[in-house]
Write a structure and sequence with these properties.
There is one protein chain. This protein is an alpha/beta fold and 313 residues long. The chain has two domains: 111 residues, Rossmann fold (3-Layer(aba) Sandwich), CATH 3.40.50; 176 residues, NAD(P)-binding Rossmann-like Domain (Rossmann fold), CATH 3.40.50.720. The chain is built from eleven helices and twelve strands. It has a seven-stranded parallel sheet with strand order 8-7-6-9-10-11-12. Strand 4, helix 4 and strand 5 form a beta-alpha-beta unit. Helix 5 packs across helix 7. 40% of the residues are buried.
Length: 313
């Protein structure tokens, strides 16, 4: 039962159980109220927002909420939110990245294995009846390879920890070096790619990283290189990726994300050198439950609302 008296707006429909959990602490208003005849009267009461991709939280919506204090996102990404508008308003923007580091890192390692060892192509070799006609071509191994991580945040660090167990050396690129990190740092994505065999992309999406992994970066990675993207489709230039694969400037790609989800461009689907997943990096029941809890806890902490301990995943 809600005892805080604080009104929270849902910018999108939430997964089962998430809204019910929030409703125990707050007065909720669903996305259907946005733009409704009574929204102007309700808007001044809204102090917090629970957002979920891909629903946009744009400047017009933020300006319509004069007493909004915080946007808590059910996602690691916040590129669906107009961050410039949020900054102008002095709003707190929180995500749930702490809940999904491990699963997304597991996905990145799986994509590395599938791409470098060409496991998806090997499976097709069997399914298409070609095994009896001859063995599948040799692939390469992971041990001793150089891994470059674009975006050494929580997810990047979790990838690095796993990669070390596979015998990879690790370097990274951020906007600036991270204090206390022993891995080699490169000031640009191109420099990192030139010193890597595998490039793992796990930086935030949005305008600042649009096409960050472009033709120059991909070609710096080299003809034996593999790029893995568990970030956002906007970060990798798909035209450049397909061109690099076509002319042998790149060996392969493992993608959990693409530009036009859930309708990827036909050239990506079934490409012999691309492993394409349907954005499932955090798609486990345990992680999705934790994401809801983190989104809720960000709101509770901001408003200093206590909640009784409950059994959680």
């Amino acid at each position: 039962m809600n005892r805080s008296g604080i009104d929270i707006l849902l910018s999108a429909t939430m997964p089962p159980g998430v809204a019910e959990d929030l409703a125990r602490h707050f007065t909720l208003h669903g996305p259907e109220v946005i733009g409704s005849p009574g929204f102007a009267d309700l808007a001044p009461r809204i102090r917090g927002m629970a957002s979920r991709e891909p629903a946009r939280v744009d400047a017009a919506l933020l300006e319509a909420l004069p007493n909004l204090e915080i946007i808590s996102s059910y996602s690691a990404g916040i590129d669906n939110i107009d961050l410039d508008a949020a900054k102008r308003r002095g709003l707190v923007v929180a995500n749930s990245s702490a809940a999904l580091d491990e699963e997304v890192a597991d996905t990145a390692i799986a994509l590395m294995l599938m791409s470098v060892r060409r496991f998806a192509a090997a499976q097709r070799h069997v399914l298409e009846g070609n095994w009896a006609k001859g063995p599948f071509p040799l692939s390469r191994g992971l041990k001793g390879k150089r891994l470059g991580i674009v975006g050494l945040g929580h997810i990047g660090e979790a990838i690095a920890a796993r990669a070390a167990a596979f015998g990879l050396s690790i370097a990274y690129h951020n906007r600036k070096p991270k204090p206390g990190v022993a891995h080699a740092y490169y000031a640009t994505a191109e420099e990192l790619a030139a010193n890597s065999d595998i490039l793992a992309v796990c930086c935030p999406g949005g305008p600042a990283t649009l096409n960050l992994i472009d033709a120059t970066v991909l070609r710096a990675l080299g003809p034996d290189g593999v790029v893995v993207n568990v970030s956002r489709g906007s970060v990798v230039d798909e035209d450049a990726l397909l061109a690099a694969l076509a002319d042998g400037a790149l060996a392969g790609a493992g993608l959990d994300v693409c530009r036009n989800e859930p309708n990827p461009r036909p050239e990506l689907v079934g490409h012999p050198d691309i492993v394409l997943l349907p954005h499932v990096g955090s798609a486990t029941t345990e992680t999705r439950a934790r994401m809801g809890h983190v989104m809720r806890d960000n709101l509770l902490a901001h408003f200093a609302v206590p909640h009784s301990a409950a059994k959680e995943v």
